[in-house]
# Entry
Amino acid sequence: MQNEATADITLFTERQRIELMGLPELISLPNLQGFAKLVGRELNQGRRFGTRPAVLLMDVAVHEPLGAPAAPSQHALALLDALGARLRSRVRGTDVVARIGEQRFGVVLQNVERANVYVIQERLEKVLGGAYELAPHPLYASLASGITKCECPRIGGSELTRAAEVALSHSLPAHARQASAPRMAVRHAG
# Structure
C-alpha cells in the first residue's frame, strides 16, 4: 500500500512537477532571432563563470496514429505543451528551455565542456518522441534535432544558434548528424 503523499504525487502533470521542483518556466519566443538573443545572454553569463554552453534545436512534427500529419488542433497543441513541459523537466535547472514559434524548441545546455552532447541529444529524443495519450486517440511526436557545442570563446549567440540550425537542417538518422561549421570553431554534435 502506498502512503498518501506518494499516491498524490502520481496525479501531478509534468507542468505541476516543474512548479514543485522550482524549475524556471518554459520561455516562449516568437522566432529564432529572439532565441539567438537569449543564447547571447547565456553565452555572456557562461563567460563570467568560465563555462561554455551547447545549443540544441528541436523541431516537432505531430502525427495521427496511422502516420498522417495531424491537423492543427487543440489536441496537437496540448501535445506540444506536454512535450515542452517534459523537456523542461528532463534538463537541469540551470539550462534554459524555450519554445520558438509553435513546433520548435531550443535548449541552452550550460556547462557542458566535458559532457558528450551527442548522448544528451539522443536521450532527449528518446524520452520526448513517441505516443502521447492526450486525446481520445493517441497522437505521436516525431523529432528532428541539431546540437552545437561552443568551442570558441569569441562566438556570438547568433552564430551559435545558426550553427545549431544548420545541424538541424542536416538531421539524419541517429549518430550521423554533422553540419559544416561557420567561420569560428564550433563543434557540431548530434
Notes: Residues 1-12, 172-190 have pLDDT under 50 and may be disordered. The chain has six helices and seven strands. The longest strand covers residues 139-150.
